[in-house]
Amino acid sequence: MADYSILSDNELIDLLKESDHVAFTEIYRRYAYLLLVHAYKKLQYEEQAKDVIQDLFTSLWLKRDIVIADGNLAGYLYISMRNKILNLLARQKVESKYIHSLNNYIVTNSNSSTDHLVREKELKAYIHKEIQALPRKMRVVFELSRNEQLNNREIALRLDTTENNVSKQVNRALRILKAKLGVIIFIYLLIRP
To answer: Ranges for the RNA polymerase sigma-70 region domain (predicted)?
Structure first.
């Protein structure tokens, strides 16, 4: 078996184009460490630099029959590595923008969602306060109607009164609440997101 370490780059390229694994190994042995050092200087992360060099040599093997037209192996490998680093950095920049945008969206929507929940809670508390301010019998009838969803007949039977009286009490309660809450609900609907 021939000693590939004494072959020139051009001879190794010719053998590589013939799918010679030993020629590929010799190219790797000659250039991998130097390219790794350079990639590390650019990226500052050893694992990323190793990935770039691995990808570079994988591409070299896969494209062995069409690469390096001018015979300058070192130049070809350096330019390929530089392009892979630039592509990686561009991809990272896009990912970073996407993550930043996603974080902004989450923060913005969680704040508006939280604000909405706080306003909704305050509105419910205000409505509850106004219901509690109704006259006692009217409040009981209204709560049975709205909270327990009983119809007028069921309320009348439970409270031992007439359906007509229940209907009047519910209608009066609605008028009172509409008068007191109408403006508040209108404002709530205006400031709602």
So the answer is: 27-93
Reference 44, options 91, 98, 85, 87; nearest CA is: 85
CA pair distance 82, 158, nearest whole angstrom: 84
Q: What is the CA radius of gyration of the chain?
A: 39
CATH architecture, range 4-97? Orthogonal Bundle (1.10)
The amino acid at residue 8 is: S
Domain residue spans in the chain?
A: 4-97, 133-191
Per-residue pLDDT of the chain (193 residues; tens, 9 = 90+): 578 889 888 888 889 889 999 999 999 999 999 999 999 999 998 999 999 999 999 999 998 887 676 678 888 899 999 999 999 888 888 887 877 777 777 666 665 667 777 777 887 888 788 888 888 888 888 888 877 888 888 988 988 989 889 888 888 887 777 777 776 665 554 454 4
CATH topology of domain 133-191: Arc Repressor Mutant, subunit A (1.10.10)
